[in-house]
Amino acid sequence: MKALLLTILAFAASAQQTAPRPETVMVTCHAKTGAEAELQRVLTRHWTTVRDLKLVRDAPHLSLRGVSNGETYFVEIFTWRDAAIPDHAPAPVQAIWAEMNKLVDGRGIEIAVVTPY
User: Fold this and answer.
1) Would 6 be classed as within a structural domain?
2) pTM for the whole thing?
């Protein structure tokens, strides 16, 4: 009986460690001057790719475009299916990230973990 209980506890602990932990992020990209349209296309392709690969939750997803002091920026808010995904992203996603990095100004890509309420 004690061995069965230990087995059940070990299984429960293992399941907790491997259970997906969703993570909602807000990604801000400040476009280089002249790269606004291309960055928007790449961001759209990024969402399509991560959705098709089932790396993100379907809802909610928010894409925003803004201008501040004459500079265009984009904000994407979405939820990774598991917080570990960005650290282990598949090659197609990493390739899109490389494209995004070429299209943003010196501030780079800002990523904040956020909590919906």
Assistant:
1) no
2) 0.82
